[in-house]
Protein backbone atom coordinates (compact mmCIF):
# COMPACT_ATOMS: atom_id res chain seq x y z
CA UNK A 1 0.00 0.00 0.00
CA UNK A 2 1.27 3.43 -0.95
CA UNK A 3 1.11 5.45 2.27
CA UNK A 4 0.27 9.13 2.39
CA UNK A 5 1.29 11.47 5.17
CA UNK A 6 -1.76 13.71 5.36
CA UNK A 7 -2.53 16.05 8.25
CA UNK A 8 -5.58 15.42 10.41
CA UNK A 9 -6.39 19.10 10.08
CA UNK A 10 -5.27 22.16 8.16
CA UNK A 11 -6.47 25.67 7.52
CA UNK A 12 -6.91 28.19 4.74
CA UNK A 13 -7.58 31.89 5.12
CA UNK A 14 -11.25 31.30 6.04
CA UNK A 15 -11.58 27.55 6.54
CA UNK A 16 -10.66 24.73 8.90
CA UNK A 17 -10.50 21.26 7.37
CA UNK A 18 -10.32 18.39 9.83
CA UNK A 19 -10.62 14.64 9.80
CA UNK A 20 -14.22 13.41 9.99
CA UNK A 21 -15.30 12.42 13.49
CA UNK A 22 -18.26 10.45 14.84
CA UNK A 23 -19.48 13.60 16.58
CA UNK A 24 -19.94 15.29 13.18
CA UNK A 25 -22.80 12.99 12.10
CA UNK A 26 -25.77 15.22 12.90
CA UNK A 27 -24.17 18.35 11.47
CA UNK A 28 -23.23 16.51 8.27
CA UNK A 29 -26.73 15.06 7.90
CA UNK A 30 -28.53 18.38 8.36
CA UNK A 31 -25.97 20.61 6.59
CA UNK A 32 -25.74 18.76 3.27
CA UNK A 33 -26.06 14.94 3.25
CA UNK A 34 -29.88 14.98 3.51
CA UNK A 35 -30.36 17.87 1.08
CA UNK A 36 -31.32 16.78 -2.47
CA UNK A 37 -30.04 20.04 -3.99
CA UNK A 38 -26.61 19.46 -2.39
CA UNK A 39 -26.36 15.76 -3.32
CA UNK A 40 -27.71 16.10 -6.87
CA UNK A 41 -24.29 15.51 -8.51
CA UNK A 42 -22.93 13.10 -5.90
CA UNK A 43 -22.08 9.47 -6.66
CA UNK A 44 -23.82 8.41 -3.43
CA UNK A 45 -27.53 8.62 -2.58
CA UNK A 46 -28.99 11.41 -0.49
CA UNK A 47 -29.02 10.29 3.14
CA UNK A 48 -32.50 9.40 4.33
CA UNK A 49 -31.64 9.13 8.01
CA UNK A 50 -28.89 9.98 10.46
CA UNK A 51 -28.01 6.27 10.40
CA UNK A 52 -26.91 6.65 6.75
CA UNK A 53 -24.52 9.39 7.85
CA UNK A 54 -23.25 7.39 10.81
CA UNK A 55 -22.57 4.42 8.50
CA UNK A 56 -20.54 6.65 6.22
CA UNK A 57 -18.52 8.02 9.14
CA UNK A 58 -17.87 4.48 10.33
CA UNK A 59 -16.53 3.63 6.86
CA UNK A 60 -14.51 6.89 6.72
CA UNK A 61 -12.88 6.17 10.09
CA UNK A 62 -11.87 2.67 8.98
CA UNK A 63 -10.67 3.87 5.54
CA UNK A 64 -8.49 6.62 7.07
CA UNK A 65 -6.72 4.01 9.20
CA UNK A 66 -6.28 1.82 6.13
CA UNK A 67 -4.88 4.76 4.14
CA UNK A 68 -7.41 4.38 1.33
CA UNK A 69 -9.82 7.28 1.90
CA UNK A 70 -9.26 10.56 3.73
CA UNK A 71 -12.42 12.52 4.54
CA UNK A 72 -12.42 16.02 6.00
CA UNK A 73 -15.13 18.30 7.30
CA UNK A 74 -14.92 21.90 6.13
CA UNK A 75 -15.75 24.54 8.73
CA UNK A 76 -15.65 28.32 8.85
CA UNK A 77 -12.72 29.42 11.00
CA UNK A 78 -14.62 32.39 12.38
CA UNK A 79 -17.39 30.37 14.09
CA UNK A 80 -16.55 26.65 13.55
CA UNK A 81 -19.75 26.21 11.51
CA UNK A 82 -19.78 23.10 9.30
CA UNK A 83 -20.32 24.05 5.66
CA UNK A 84 -19.17 20.98 3.71
CA UNK A 85 -16.66 18.20 3.34
CA UNK A 86 -13.90 16.97 1.07
CA UNK A 87 -12.70 13.45 0.44
CA UNK A 88 -9.58 11.91 -1.09
CA UNK A 89 -9.46 8.32 -2.31
CA UNK A 90 -5.95 6.84 -2.46
CA UNK A 91 -5.60 4.07 -5.03
CA UNK A 92 -1.89 3.23 -4.67
CA UNK A 93 -0.79 6.82 -5.28
CA UNK A 94 -3.55 7.72 -7.73
CA UNK A 95 -5.78 10.22 -5.96
CA UNK A 96 -9.39 10.89 -6.77
CA UNK A 97 -11.14 13.62 -4.83
CA UNK A 98 -14.50 15.24 -4.41
CA UNK A 99 -16.27 17.77 -2.24
CA UNK A 100 -19.75 18.86 -1.24
CA UNK A 101 -21.06 22.05 0.35
CA UNK A 102 -24.29 23.19 1.91
CA UNK A 103 -26.25 25.16 -0.71
CA UNK A 104 -26.24 28.08 1.74
CA UNK A 105 -22.50 28.45 1.12
CA UNK A 106 -22.38 28.04 -2.67
CA UNK A 107 -20.86 30.83 -4.76
CA UNK A 108 -18.64 32.25 -2.00
CA UNK A 109 -15.30 30.78 -3.14
CA UNK A 110 -15.09 28.18 -0.38
CA UNK A 111 -14.79 25.20 -2.74
CA UNK A 112 -11.94 26.86 -4.63
CA UNK A 113 -10.19 27.81 -1.40
CA UNK A 114 -10.45 24.30 0.08
CA UNK A 115 -9.46 22.64 -3.20
CA UNK A 116 -6.39 24.82 -3.75
CA UNK A 117 -5.01 24.19 -0.27
CA UNK A 118 -5.71 20.45 -0.48
CA UNK A 119 -3.93 20.24 -3.84
CA UNK A 120 -0.90 22.07 -2.36
CA UNK A 121 -0.71 19.45 0.38
CA UNK A 122 -1.12 16.57 -2.07
CA UNK A 123 1.57 17.88 -4.41
CA UNK A 124 4.09 17.65 -1.56
CA UNK A 125 3.40 13.91 -1.19
CA UNK A 126 6.14 11.89 -2.89
CA UNK A 127 4.13 8.76 -3.62
CA UNK A 128 1.37 10.42 -5.61
CA UNK A 129 1.58 10.00 -9.37
CA UNK A 130 -1.88 11.27 -10.37
CA UNK A 131 -4.53 13.59 -8.96
CA UNK A 132 -7.87 13.65 -10.67
CA UNK A 133 -11.61 13.71 -10.42
CA UNK A 134 -14.66 13.49 -12.62
CA UNK A 135 -17.82 15.55 -12.76
CA UNK A 136 -21.20 15.35 -14.42
CA UNK A 137 -20.85 17.47 -17.56
CA UNK A 138 -23.85 19.49 -16.35
CA UNK A 139 -22.11 20.46 -13.08
CA UNK A 140 -20.92 23.85 -14.30
CA UNK A 141 -20.05 25.19 -10.83
CA UNK A 142 -17.61 22.36 -10.09
CA UNK A 143 -16.10 22.63 -13.55
CA UNK A 144 -15.33 26.30 -12.82
CA UNK A 145 -13.75 25.39 -9.45
CA UNK A 146 -11.50 22.80 -11.09
CA UNK A 147 -10.46 25.26 -13.81
CA UNK A 148 -9.55 27.87 -11.17
CA UNK A 149 -7.50 25.27 -9.27
CA UNK A 150 -5.33 24.36 -12.26
CA UNK A 151 -7.01 21.16 -13.38
CA UNK A 152 -7.31 20.37 -17.05
CA UNK A 153 -9.88 18.36 -18.90
CA UNK A 154 -8.51 14.96 -19.86
CA UNK A 155 -11.56 13.27 -21.38
CA UNK A 156 -15.29 13.44 -21.92
CA UNK A 157 -17.02 10.13 -21.47
CA UNK A 158 -20.54 9.55 -22.79
CA UNK A 159 -22.98 7.58 -20.64
CA UNK A 160 -20.20 6.99 -18.12
CA UNK A 161 -21.74 7.30 -14.67
CA UNK A 162 -25.13 6.74 -13.11
CA UNK A 163 -25.89 9.32 -10.44
CA UNK A 164 -28.36 7.93 -7.89
CA UNK A 165 -29.92 11.33 -7.22
CA UNK A 166 -30.64 11.95 -10.92
CA UNK A 167 -32.78 8.91 -11.62
CA UNK A 168 -29.79 6.60 -12.16
CA UNK A 169 -29.62 7.44 -15.86
CA UNK A 170 -26.13 7.29 -17.44
CA UNK A 171 -24.66 10.75 -17.76
CA UNK A 172 -21.79 12.30 -19.70
CA UNK A 173 -18.86 13.00 -17.39
CA UNK A 174 -15.66 14.98 -17.69
CA UNK A 175 -12.43 13.60 -16.26
CA UNK A 176 -10.04 16.25 -14.93
CA UNK A 177 -6.42 15.87 -13.89
CA UNK A 178 -4.05 18.17 -12.07
CA UNK A 179 -0.70 18.31 -13.89
CA UNK A 180 2.08 17.31 -11.51
CA UNK A 181 5.28 19.09 -12.42
CA UNK A 182 8.39 16.92 -12.66
CA UNK A 183 6.51 13.64 -12.38
CA UNK A 184 5.78 10.99 -14.92
Can you describe what's shown?
- The chain has 184 residues and is α+β, with helices and mostly antiparallel strands.
- The chain has a domain at 9-133: Aminopeptidase.
- Helix content is 29%, strand content 33%.
- The protein has helices spanning 25-33, 36-39, 50-66, 110-123, 140-148, and strands at 9-11, 15-19, 69-76, 82-91, 94-101, 130-136, 152-162, 170-177.
- Helix 1 packs across helix 3.
- The longest helix has 17 residues, at 50-66.
- The protein is globular, with a radius of gyration of 16 Å.
- The relative contact order is 0.17.
- The mean pLDDT is 96.
User: What is the CA-CA span between the terminal residues?
Assistant: 19 Å
Q: What's the Cα radius of gyration? A: 16 Å
Going across the biggest sheet, name each strand in turn.
1-2-3-4-5-6-8-7
Helicity range:
25-40%
Brief account:
With 184 residues, the chain is α+β, with helices and mostly antiparallel strands.
Keywords:
184 residues, alpha+beta, Aminopeptidase, 8 strands
Give the helix/strand layout:
Elements: E1 9-11, E2 15-19, H1 25-33, H2 36-39, H3 50-66, E3 69-76, E4 82-91, E5 94-101, H4 110-123, E6 130-136, H5 140-148, E7 152-162, E8 170-177
Parallel strand pairs: 5-6
Antiparallel strand pairs: 1-2, 2-3, 3-4, 4-5, 6-8, 7-8
Helix pairs in contact: 1-3
Amino acid sequence: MIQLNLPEQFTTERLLLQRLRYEDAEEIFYTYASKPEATHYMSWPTHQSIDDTRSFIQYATWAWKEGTDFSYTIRLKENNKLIGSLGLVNEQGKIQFGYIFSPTYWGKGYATEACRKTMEILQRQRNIFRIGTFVDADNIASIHVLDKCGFREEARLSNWMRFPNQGNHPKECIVFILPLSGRE
